[in-house]
Amino acid sequence: MNDLLAVLESVLVEPWGYTFMQRALVVGLVTALVCGVISCWLVLIGWSLMGDAISHSVLPGVVIAYMLGLPFAVGALAFALIAVAMIGSIRRSGEVKPDAAIGIVFTTLFALGTVLVSVTPSQTDLNHILFGNLLGVIRSDMVQVMALGAIVLVFILVKRRDLTLFAFDPMQARAIGLSPRFLSASLLVSLAITVVVSFQAVGLILVVAMLITPGATARLLTGSIWRMLWISPLVAVVAVLTGILSSYALDASSGGMIGVSLGVLFGITYLAGPRGVITEAVRRRRRGGARARAVAA
């Protein structure tokens, strides 16, 4: 018993005594809260591909910021907003379907980013931009994430009722005096900032996991948007804590472990949740058994 307690302490308690783990925890939790909240509306509106597109589109901005000696967040935010503007412009033209517009913009910008990475002389391993380096964040990164995360959270929570109405019934939103175009643009800008917050934790490749999986998991657990707003960030927080501790213990990619943790939580919910595959099979079997007993009686 004492040996088990010692192992649990070394795995669950001791890591938090290191400064780099404390910074990782702060950045991870802020990322989880922001992504968990905005994930709800992305899932409800059907903007999963948009989150993926913006997360890939910021790569050239990050590389250019590195070349100019600027904080990565500056370049990432600039290109995230550029991507949003380009996608919106192409979609409004009506000549190209929305999914095609998203695909064209994000593949072009991501390709530009890979070219810049390949030709940029660097003493720094830029791969952490793609796959995250949560255990290596520095104090300035932590401050940036906290500031940007606070901006997004405050805006979304203030506008939560308007955004919810926009997600379910844009026509009704317009009828009561709201502007669906403004709400759409505001949510896209918030998404762009969230991507900048998230890539510090999980990298550009896995940002979409943080943006979509928590909301999708919460959707399987409840049909209420207000409950989703609690459940989704909680799922993200659990995944971040599990991923950080797992990456520390296994000396593995922190972003990768967070992505795996999110996938496992979704898988468990999909199979054994209130509306899970196994749960529904058990209910059908019980209903069948009850009918059989009723007939026999």
From TrEMBL:
The keyword Transport applies. Pfam families: ABC-3. Its main location: membrane. Signal peptide: none annotated. This is Metal ABC transporter permease. Keywords: Membrane, Transmembrane, Transmembrane helix, Transport. It comes from Schaalia naturae. Gene3D superfamilies: ABC transporter involved in vitamin B12 uptake, BtuC (1.10.3470.10). The chain crosses the membrane at residues 24-50, 62-88, 100-122, 142-158, 178-197, 203-221, 228-250, 256-278. CDD domains: TM_ABC_iron-siderophores_like. It is a multi-pass membrane protein. Belongs to the ABC-3 integral membrane protein family. It is found in: Cell membrane; Membrane. It comes from the Bacteria.
